[in-house]
Amino acid sequence: MWLLGRVAVWNAAFLPAPVVALADLSYLPVLGSRIALNLMARPKLQQALLLAIVALVWTSNLSFHLDGLGLLTDGASRGVRGALLAHSAMLLIIGGRLVPGFTRNAMMQAGREDGHPQSPAALAVLSIAPGLALVPAVLAGAPAGAIAALALMAGGAALLRLLFWRGWWAWSRPILWTLHMAFLLNGLGLVAFGLAALGIGDELAALHLIGIGGIGGITISILTRLTLGLTGRPLVAPWPVAVAYALIPLAAVIRFAASTWPEIYYPASLTAGALWLLAFGLVLAALWPVFLGPRLPRAPVLRRPGLPRG
Q1: Distant-in-sequence, close-in-space partners of 192: CB < 8 Å, separation ≥ 6
Q2: Res 298: pLDDT
Q3: N or C: which end of the chain has fewer CB within 10 A?
C-alpha cells in the first residue's frame, strides 16, 4: 500500500489528481489503525504520541492534496511544512529516549558507574508538547507570534535536554555522537524556525536545518546502528560510515547558508546536495556486504566479577 502511493505520486502527471490523492493518502490510516489496536490492548503513552504523529503527517498530506485539487488555498506549502515539522516532533519523542538511553548503555559498558545521562520529565514535556502543537498551528495558518512561541519553546527545551545527556562523553564514539548531533540540529532548526516567524532569519534555511541535519541525521544514525546490531556486529562505525556521520551536519550547515545568503545559493546548494549523496553512498558501500551477508553469531556477554548471573 505504501508502494502504491509512491507509484501514484511518481506518475502524477499521467493520472487524475483524485486518484493520486487517494492512493497516497491510503497507507497512513492503515498504519494508524494498527497502532490504535495495540493501544487498546496495551495502553502506552509513547504509542499514543506516535499515533498523534501519524495523524499529523496524514493531515499535512491531505492539505497538500487538497491544494492540488483546487479545494484549499496555500495547502501545499502548509502541508509540506507541517509534515516536516511532524517528523521533527517525532524526533523529539523517539530521540528523547534513544539518545540518552544508548549513551547510558555505552557508559555502563565502559565501566562508568556515575554521571549517566538524565532525562528531566518537565523538559521533555516543554519540548514535545509545543513541538506537536506547532504542526496544527502551521496547517491552520496561525499568527506568526503563536508559531514563533511554539517553535522557540520546543527547540529551546530540546537544547536544554541535550545538556543532561553527557554528549561530550560520546565524542570519541561516532555511532553515539551522531545521535547527539542530529538532536542538536533539530533543536537549532526549531529555534531558527521560530526566529524566522518573527522576521529574524530565513524560514527555508531553518527547515533545511531540521530536514537535513535533524531528520536526515537521525535516519542515517539509526539505520547504521540497527544494521550493525541486528546482524551481530560490534556497535562500532566503520570509517566510511563515521565520515558519513560528519558529512550530514556539514551538508545541513552549508544548505542553511545557501538560503541565508542568496549570493552563494547555487554553489552552496549543489555542495550540500553532493555531500548528502556522498554520505548515503558511503553508508551503502560500507554496509552492502552486511545487508547481503549472513548474521554473525552473537558474541558472549562478558560479565564483570561479582555480578549476579540472574
Answers
A1: 155, 201, 205, 206, 209, 256
A2: 66
A3: C
Q: How do residues 97-138 score in pLDDT, each as one tens digit?
A: 999 999 999 999 989 888 899 999 999 999 999 999 999 999
Distance between CA atoms of 267 and 87, rounded to whole angstroms?
28
The 3 state secondary structure assigned to 59-128 is: HHHHHHHHHHCCCCCCHHHHHHHHHHHHHHHHHHHHHHHHHHHHHHHHHHHCCCCCCCCCCCHHHHHHHH
Residue 70's region, left for phi above 0, alpha for psi from -120 to 50, else beta, is: left
What gap in Å lies between CA 272 and CA 249, rounded to an integer?
A: 10
Helix 2-10, helix 27-41: angle, nearest 10: 160
Give the pLDDT confidence score for residue 297 in this predicted structure: 82
In this model, does residue 38 exceed pLDDT 50? yes
Q: Is the pLDDT of residue 40 over 90?
A: no
What is the predicted pLDDT for the residue at 306?
44
Checking if the pLDDT of 304 tops 80, the result is: no
